Structure formats: structure tokens, C-alpha cells
User: What shape does this take?
Amino acid sequence: MALVCDAAAIVMEASNPLITAPDSHGSAKLQGPSGIGLVTLASLHGFPIRLPPKSITAGRISKSWRWRRRYSVGMSIRLFDLLGRWFPLLLWVIAAHLAFGRAYLLALNLTESLPGTLFLVEKNVMPARGELVAFRWEANWPYSRGCLFLKRLIGLPGSVVTATGRDFRVDGEPVGRAKERARTGEPLDTGPVGIIPDGRYYVAGSHPDSLDSRYRLTGWVSRQQIVGKAYRIF
Assistant: This one.
């Protein structure tokens, strides 16, 4: 056992020693049971210090060590028991997650240009006209390249897109008017008109601020951009 006293550390091996009061020289003697002086210390400020016997200290350490060992072993057994009990369920959850991730995608809508907040996207499924389509954004502004867009599929390959001024129609059906400027003030160029070629699709939203095929930034969406068919959850 180590005792720190006035910045001096000593190791005690005697049984039940007693440190006496300092003498005239400012020193104190450590005496064993037989009265034999064992070691002399610097000033202890006159306070006798009785050290516990070595056997008591060793017993406390031994009990503490045994308790920690039993606790560690018990926790290990409990952990393995829980793993064994929940391991099949854990495997099932992982497998279900992987299977779901290959076929589906959850999309959260944070804009006002599309009604709804949470959508389920069925990957590699081509929606029909009028249904929601999920596709990747290819431009670098005002959104980052590759972010997910959800719009209505309005025009298919072979559809005719016309515009009178900034008012667009697809196969004679109105799809809305293109704004001249974005909310931030940047000018917006109108999208292409004519017959939609193979592998291209016209997408649109009902909101006036929907950034869709009415604008050159979006244009006609390619088949490679399309992720799948989207369903509104709520």
C-alpha cells in the first residue's frame, strides 16, 4: 500500500504499524508492534497515522478483483445469450433491408412544388403517362447534380410539345406557363419544343415554381435519368 504524506511516499510492509508524533528535530518514527523503529519520516504535523494491516488490504483487493471478474463473466454470458436469442431476427432485418433497398427507395419532399411529403419509389419501373416519375437532376444549378426529382410524366416519345410565348402544351393539353425569372432573380430559359425523340420524356408539376421540362435547365428527361415509379405515402 502506498501512502502519500507531505509529498513523501513509502511502502508499508509491517503489521499494524503506528507513526508517532514528531520529535524535537521535526521527525517521526514508524514503530512496529514490538516498538522497533522501522523508518523515519519528515514532519507529519504531529498527527499519528495508523496503517491497516497488510492482510486486510490484500483481502480487500482480492474481494474487489473477484467481484469484477464475476461481473465481467456475467456480462459476457448475458451478451452471448442475447446475441444467440436475437441473431435470427437480426439476420432477417438485414436481409429485408437489403432486399428493400434493391427494389425501393424512400423519398422525402421538402419543397412546395409537389404535393405530399413522403414518397415510395419503385426502382426500375417505368411509370405510365400521368403517374409520378423519379429521376436524377443533371444540371449543377440551382440543385446539386444527381439529386432526386419527382414530377408527373406528361409526354412520351412521339408526343408533340408546342409553346405560345411561354405557355406550353403537350399533345394539345396545357401544362403551364414558364416563368421568366427564378425566385432568386436569375433569368430562366424556356425548354425545347417539337416531337419528343426516343428515350426522352416530358415531366411537369402543377405548382407555378415547379422546375420541370418547361425550362431548359430540366429539358426532356432521358431514360438513363429515370430511377422509377413514385407513390405518394402522405
